[in-house]
Amino acid sequence: MSESATREASVRTVLIAVLANFAIAVAKGLAAAMTGSAALWAETAHSLADTGNEVLLYVGLRRSDRPPDERHPFGYGQERWFWTFLAAMGIFLVGGVFSITEGVEAMLHPRPLEDVPIGVAVLLVSLVLEALSWRTARKQLREEARARRRSMAEHLRRASDPTAATVLLEDTAAIVGITLALLAIALHSLTGWAGWDAGAGILIGLLLVGVAYLVARRSKGLLIDESAPPDVLDRLRERIREEDWVRRIEALTAVYVGPGRLLVTARLLPVPEMNRRPAEILVERAYALRTALCASDVIGDVEITLVPEPDESSST
């Protein structure tokens, strides 16, 4: 997928997730108030956190789309990672901490369940909506992984655009959380012990803390100029080695400056024949290679340094 296609797919994924989670949060909140279920209150906080976080992801998508300027010569792509990091903090604070607190409170002060069928119905509808959002995020990630010749799991670890991955992780946690809430309500109703409900609230909170950690860790790595993964570097080396004037790649580095955008620096040793030809020819060949690399979907800018023969004292 091209950078523009990936961005459009990310916007669609986020908007679907926002609409789904807002509707789910309202329904869960009403059901939680009617049933008194700690697990449903935890799931309400979960959906509210997801809605707010996906709004942050949307803000990041829009702000990162601005063109380069004098202060930001490589553009604003890294803003997407900053807003994703804020979303991770929202998952942790609004979702995780609140859910754990609500679960502990319910454990210390048990409450009876009321209107159980309403709570179950809301959770089942929420499960369907979450599954639709999850399917959209998974479809985008599968297409991105196929375009980069990766497995889904590998792409989740290495993707430079964390938007769809964040939505997928949130929706996966939501599906697991809803399942826990359904089991807790059923067991509470059957046994009369409120500990099932309280325990589910705590587990949902811990699940959200784990998701927040995964999202924050990936965003942190990208924000501190993480190197491109080995498969991207290998493809760059293969492309450079196709040039008949390149004898050896002395050094090659590539760091992300935005989702799907790399800053590449290459130090290349030309073949001996090139040193006997006019310097302008070598410069033209290097410029043509730079242009070809910049035209790639994953390259933002390229700097090429030509290295002299080992026994020469000056560079070309």
Automatic annotation (TrEMBL):
Enumerate the spans annotated as Cation efflux protein transmembrane domain: 14-221
A GO CC annotation given for this chain: membrane
Q: Which InterPro entries match?
A: Cation_efflux, Cation_efflux_TM, Cation_efflux_TMD_sf, SLC30A9
Q: Under the GO molecular function aspect, what terms does this record hold?
A: monoatomic cation transmembrane transporter activity
Q: Where are the transmembrane segments?
A: 12-31, 81-101, 167-187, 193-216
Key word Glycoprotein present in the record? Answer: no
Q: Which keywords, in A-to-Z order, does the entry hold? A: Membrane, Transmembrane, Transmembrane helix, Transport
> Topology with regard to the membrane?
Multi-pass membrane protein
Q: Which Pfam family name is an example for this entry?
A: Cation_efflux
Q: Can you say what this protein is called?
A: Cation diffusion facilitator transporter
Query: What is the organism field in this record?
Result: Planosporangium mesophilum
